Amino acid sequence: MRKRPQPEASSSSSSASKSEPQASDEQIKTGSSNDIHVRSAKRSGLAWTVAFAAFVYATYGVYYYQYEHMPPPLTADQAGKRGFSEFEAIKHVKALTELGPHPVGSDALDRALQYVFAAAQKIKETKHWEVDVEVDFFHAKSGANRLVSGAFMGRTLIYSDLNHIVLRIQPKYASEAAENAILVSSHIDTVFAA
């Protein structure tokens, strides 16, 4: 806190003022005195209200962009043979969920694989005339996967006796399509907690 110079009213006060160091005008301007303290300004309620309103507005903006600006999900009729139907996809998810947990080596996993294989065969049978669809069901006796990142970095996963389904969709009349592909991969097996 700043000390203001006191006017000399009496001799006792003048002797007391001589013993205490006084801050000169130059020290006050430069802040070189040891006993001069400057308090920081407190934020007003208006500043906090404006900051809170900006936070709420930004949060709503993110929500609006993610959930209100997305295209509406398509039914099977709307998607046709060339599009993707979210309603049909969620039907498959629900059917696989009804099987309960299906960990590796369980009968439930075999049923889940048969369901996915039947759905892939249906895609092949009802495909659009401009595409070729290949469905492959194969058995892997053993394999390994070395993890190079994440929490289990440096560890190797070893598996054996697993079945896999590969569905390849490519246009009939594009010669470069056989050389270029997008791979979409998914695990069908689950753990008991899933």
UniProtKB/TrEMBL annotation:
It is found in: Membrane. Keywords: Glycoprotein, Membrane, Transmembrane, Transmembrane helix. The chain crosses the membrane at residues 46-65. Residues 7-24 have a biased composition (Low complexity). GO terms for molecular function: metalloexopeptidase activity. Residues 1-35 are annotated as: Disordered. SUPFAM superfamilies: Zn-dependent exopeptidases (SSF53187). It comes from the Eukaryota. InterPro entries: M28_fam (IPR045175). One of its GO terms (biological process) is proteolysis. This is Peptidase M28 domain-containing protein. It comes from Citrus sinensis (Sweet orange).
